[in-house]
Amino acid sequence: MADLYTLTNSRDQLVSSNYFYRLRQYGLYGSVQVGYKDWAFLNVTGRNDWSSTLPKDNNSYFYPSVTASVLLTEALGLKSNTLNYLKLRGGWSQVGSDADPYQLATVFTSETAFNGNPLQTTSGQGKNANLKPERTTSWEAGLEARLLDDRIRLDFSWYQTDSKDQILQLATTAASGYNTQVRNAGHIRNRGYEIQLGVTPVLTKKFRWDVDVNYGHNDSKVIKLDDEGLITSYQLYSSGIQILATVGESYGTLFGSAYTRDAQGRIVVDANGLPKVSSSSKILGKFSPNWIGSIQNTFKYKDFTLSFLIDASFGGSIFSNTNKTGRYTGVLENTLSGRAADYGGLWYYVDNGNRIQISQPQYTTTSDGLYYADVNGQNTRVYQDGIIVDGVTEDGQPNTTVVSAENYYHRLYNIAEANVYDASFVKLRELSIGYNLPKSVYSRLGLQGASVTLTARNLWTIYKKADNIDPEAAITAGNAQGVEAYTLPTARTYGLNINVKF
Q: Checking DSSP bridges between strand 233-238 and strand 253-256, what pairing results, if any?
């Protein structure tokens, strides 16, 4: 086709794809700010958008916000050397969002004719001519305080965010002619609080020590997925494990194959002594942490500054493809356990398909590395990679069956639960050393000020539970953040910053 400039229109076509779309948005925005006697403040905003990606009857959406604050130390005359500052604040807002282009009407693609008859197909996705804009409603309340000449600083926030009418592609019966349907669905609620506390334990003319602590907790829950209550779960990601939004559960639950366990929670093994895979998948965790926090210490002596930041995250889970594949292939150090007698491997021989454990024998080694020993008067091949899985048989008896380490680690490959780890960690996130040049030096250079700072990040993982991986190393920061996939070790970074003022 003439004048169509796309890669697929080349004479010798490239393996490529492109996507062209148009959308139009208009918006009006206004705000009003009111203050009273420098201690009461009110800010009101309003915005209205019009989007071409929504149907005509729903393409206009308004979203306002209101924030207010009161300086109690000024309003009530409470300001003193003990209480320097006290502020209450609160806010409410609503935000709207439109859809991606071309979600309203189903279109057909022409295919090769069948028996001379025209053939057209759809993408398998049912569109929706009645879409509504997404809406997120939030409120927050907080308190700020400073005491003892600002040597104690407190900031507390409590919030809730509700996201409704999210535009999702929900699975539908193939009898409808589509595999998925674009719909307004979902009600996700985030509720939590955050505390920031700053303290200056030591303050002299030449030395200052500041400690700043931050603690936050967020609970993200799926309230509902559709108005009819017919949909109870929505798949966000799937590969080896599923990441789901399930009604009544935390947003981003990890769902997959699990160990078969008895009523006491013990792992059940099969007739071969290997862990049994449960007949039904289970919730194995959630990717969001229970809480996050940090502590930063800053020391200033004359013109020198030393600062270090420690980050922590506790709770939450991560599915590790590195451990899953690394154990299957035997390339990880933790697969040495049981692979040889020096690493706890049990000696055994095979009789009619059964592995019979024996004490360490007097053995000989063949040229190809095989072991042979006298067993019941016979020269028998023996092995030293035996493992007895810690579990019980189906009748509740302690497991005594020996399996090879290879078979055991291969079985774990098929059990998602075996590859889910606690994502908790504590890290030395940042260390910096700075020096402010004295005035006698920078003034000679015609400068107003100058400083040099050396910064290093990700120096040390002080604590973690996940083997062989960085628990922060998820595929993305979005819906797949509970999945790690063959990531490289986290890099340390070093930087030198030179700051001058003219």
A: unpaired
Nearest to 66 by CA among 2, 133, 140, 128: 140
What are the phi and psi torsion angles at 206 (to 5°)? -110, -15
Main-chain dihedrals φ then ψ at residue 397, nearest 5 degrees = -85, 150
Q: What is the DSSP letter of 411?
A: H
Contact 197, 216 (CB under 8 A): no
Report the distance separating Cα 499 and Cα 501, nearest Å: 7
Weakest mean pLDDT among 139-143, 299-303, 441-445:
441-445
Q: What is the DSSP string of 189-234?
A: EEEEEEEEEEEEEEE-SSEEEEEEEEEEEEEEEEEES-TTS---EE
| H or E element that contains 425 | strand 425-436
Over residues 470-486, the pLDDT tens digits come to 999 887 777 778 999 98
How do beta strands 152-171 and 134-147 pair?
antiparallel
Coil, helix or strand at residue 6 = coil
pTM of the model: 0.86
CA distance 252 to 477: 12
| pLDDT at position 447 over 80 | no
> If you write DSSP's letter for every residue of 123-162 in order, what string do you get?
-SEE--TT---EEEEEEEEEEEEEETTTTEEEEEEEEEEE
- 200 burial (CB, 10 Å; 0-12 / 13-18 / 19+) is middle
Tokens of 496: 């030198």
Q: How far apart are CA 315 and CA 482, in angstroms?
A: 12
For residues 205 and 24, what is the distance between their CA atoms, to the nearest angstrom?
Answer: 60
